[in-house]
């Protein structure tokens, strides 16, 4: 009786398996022979023998599967897909609920019955509205420009008043913050100068221990002169502030 070599392409971790069986052997008998040759294979409940294309019945003999080579047949040994406990319908319903909760109103990528995108139609509508209100925008811009020019003219007219008329008027300077800063600056300069002169006087007494009245008198005179200079230096800033 003629024999046929059968090659089984498997899945990891199993390698490619081979058998040599009579040509009249049926598909249903192949797995028993295969388990005798390879005892480490799982039971028939977990594996299935199938061709590379199409389907087979258990009573199909090997001789009907000969292709280009009459002595070689290739088959697949694949695991069976066992059924679960169900619940697939509930999962679909839950997924549908999540999809419906994420609805959006952005349909700009859709098309109308003429094939035009809705985003194109919306853009054209906005352009028409823009063109219709062009006159209103130009009028508003002209009014704003006119108001700005009038305000500028009023400022120029107020600045071009005769200085002789303003000379006889009294102006009150109310910038108290500036006055306080000016006084504080003058006081700080005065105290700094006085401190420096006192230190210098003490150093002079230490270097030349003389209590002559002429030396003390000259030191007092220099202190008074420095204080007078400080007051004179601060007067121009106050005069400018009062004239402003």
Q: Can you give the helix content as a percent range?
A: 40-55%
Total count of strands: 4
Low-confidence stretches: 236-244
Structural class: alpha+beta
Tell me what portion of residues adopts beta-strand conformation.
5-15%
Count of DSSP H/I helices: 7
Shape designation: elongated
Distance between the termini: 129 Å
Order of helices and strands: EEHEEHHHHHH
Spatial arrangement of strands, main beta sheet: 2-1-4-3
Query: What is the typical, i.e. mean, pLDDT?
Result: 75
The main β sheet shows up as: 4 strands, mixed
The value of Rg in angstroms is: 55 Å
Keywords:
disordered C terminus, 4 strands, four-stranded mixed sheet, single chain, elongated, alpha+beta
What would you note in describing this structure?
This protein is of the alpha+beta class and 244 residues long. Helices cover 55% and strands 10% of the residues. Strands 2-1-4-3 form a four-stranded mixed β-sheet, with helices on one face. A hairpin with a 7-residue loop joins β1 (3-9) and β2 (17-22). α6 packs antiparallel against α7 (213-243). The longest helix has 32 residues, at 176-207. It starts with a strand and ends with a helix.
